[in-house]
Amino acid sequence: MGKQVLIVGGTSGIGRELAAAYARRGASVIIAGRDSTRAEKVAAELDTGMDTTAVRGIEVDLSKPETIGEALSGIDHIDSIVLAGMRRDNNTIAGYDIAGATELAVTKLIGYTTVVHALRSRISRTGSVLLFGGLAKDVPYPGSTTVTTVNAGVTGLVATLARELAPVRVNAIHPGMVGDSPYWAGNERALEAARARILTGVLPTMQDVVEGSLFLLENPAANGVNLDLNGGHA
């Protein structure tokens, strides 16, 4: 494939599955996570063996945007950037946790933007950027005050980055509850309740989200798109 792809938040879950998909396609993959040891371990596990440098891990902490430029200084060029890193947050107005809300907002809105800022001159003109949001932008749930706000903010980032980075393409993917993700797998009570709210009755899988991500990253006509993948929410 000959591409170089950076996946921030690629050490677990959907990010890891997307990294594996690109490695199988022959891309050079850089996995970034908060813990360099873990990122390097995951990279070694995913390396296809075709090239010892095909997959590598680096440390990038989205919650500390002042460190991101230096963390990415070793990347000389990039074709695609995936921003999948996140923090879990359970917040309501009645019991508002300022520290938790701040960490999530900084991670996704400022951290995502800082990664793009740091690499803007090194992205291929035919390249792409993919941001991860989520269903909560449209469907709030108890405790989603910050998550809903931040994921709605991702749609705004798509709108402005697609214009500022043109001709580089910028899109976002907004999954619903992903039934086989490490966070939700096995939680049958929550999964069953989620299925009851989905028009198809079938929860998205990690593979569904990977395929949607590849479409947004690789299709040259996909730009400025916010793609919902949730089976149709009732």
Top keywords for this entry?
single chain, 234 residues, alpha/beta, seven-stranded parallel beta sheet, 7 helices, 39% helix
Give a verbal description of the structure.
The chain is α/β, with parallel strands linked by helices and 234 residues long. 39% of the residues lie in helices and 18% in strands. It contains seven helices and seven strands. It has helices at residues 13-24, 36-46, 68-71, 98-119, 145-164, 188-196, 206-218, and strands at 4-8, 28-33, 55-59, 78-83, 123-132, 169-175, 226-229. The protein has a seven-stranded parallel β-sheet, with helices on both faces. α2 links the parallel β2 (28-33) and β3 (55-59). α4 (98-119) packs parallel to α5 (145-164). The chain is globular. The N and C termini lie far apart (40 Å).
Write the layout of secondary structure elements.
Elements (H helix, E strand, L loop, with lengths): L3 E5 L4 H12 L3 E6 L2 H11 L8 E5 L8 H4 L6 E6 L14 H22 L3 E10 L12 H20 L4 E7 L12 H9 L9 H13 L7 E4 L5
Parallel strand pairs: 1-2, 1-4, 2-3, 4-5, 5-6, 6-7
Helix pairs in contact: 1-7, 4-5
